[in-house]
Amino acid sequence: MIRPFAWSTLLSFSLLPLVRSAIPQTVVLDATRLATVKAQLQYGTETAALRSTLATLVNQANYWLSQGPWSVTNKSSSGLPPGATIYDYVSQAPYFWPGNTSTGCPYVEYDGQVYPGSQVWPDHDNRGRVFASSYILSLAWYYTGNAAYSQQAANVIRTWFITNATAMNPNLNHAQFIPCSNSGRYIGIIDFSQGYTSVLDAVAILQSGAPGWTAADTAGFVAWNTAYSNWLETSSFGQQETAATNNHGTFALMQSAGVALFLGNTALARSKANAMLPRISAYITANGSQPQELARTRSFHYSVYDLLAYTRMADIASKVGVNVWGYTGSNGQSIQQAVNFIIPAASGAQSWSYPELDFEAYTAGDVIHAAADAGNPNAVAALKNVPTPPSGSLWFVRPAPELLDQTT
Asked: Is residue 173, in this structure, part of any structural domain at all?
């Protein structure tokens, strides 16, 4: 039976010099835990579970070695929404379908049902590939020392964010546009806020001495994020998304905090972390349910999805002195209570009694792992009964909650 690592017991005195010299300045990931795992692997003190998890990571990294790089310029300039160029990130609203057989207009929303025609724009899927590959490859380099992994990760990040001829403009003005209606929507920010903080951690790992990553790369990436952070904070889209009361607002706060922390703006990161606390009181009930997510056609998925943002924010907040994990509202609202709410369905103890087009229990695995590591005994007990993701669990080498299924 696999249980969460007792991390406090792993930093033995003999490993401290190595661990201290190897700690990257990560945003979400607990870098001390990464260094501890790396030390275990180097000293041959790792468990069988850790060896198996590392093998899964390396297998995924080997796949990404032959993929990419990708760029927003890899799309046609014809049919772009008004005001967009090939250097702008463009995605189409996935749940909006043509409402008229001849013209398509107006488009009509069917929640949770992806319109295949929306996939004509490659930026959305390529963005996902950039996020996943750079993260997996940088971690694989960190643990194995194989320079091929870090060089590929650097090339992927450099192509999408830094190289002038291929770099994305640092805004999301044209994300999730609706044909015949607009050229972009503020809720399109979710395309980045869901996973972009993993790229920040990938770069933090590469900055710890990876072959293929240079000081010029760091300067270019910092410049991109400085402009992007400014857009998130000052644009009407960024402000509207942050004010959203469902998972969009939770993710927006988390993303802004992560970017701010990466840039060294701890005051802004702390402000965003503190802003998460009243959201817990307002949008998580005393029994742990999240009513706005339960109203969706994919209610289990979106309940887990919103928790992904809360738990990642809790990890960011811990680095700037804000205890999001430990916060409890006046009626008992908390992240841990929200995790308790999904545990029975995720562990198979009860069926999920709310609308769900495609129930997959394994999607809750990472948030339950995170809750267990944060001291939730219910989560610790449930872990053995939560199914492993089809691609395998990476928790022991990547101990931060990630999206384990597909969403748009």
From this structure: yes
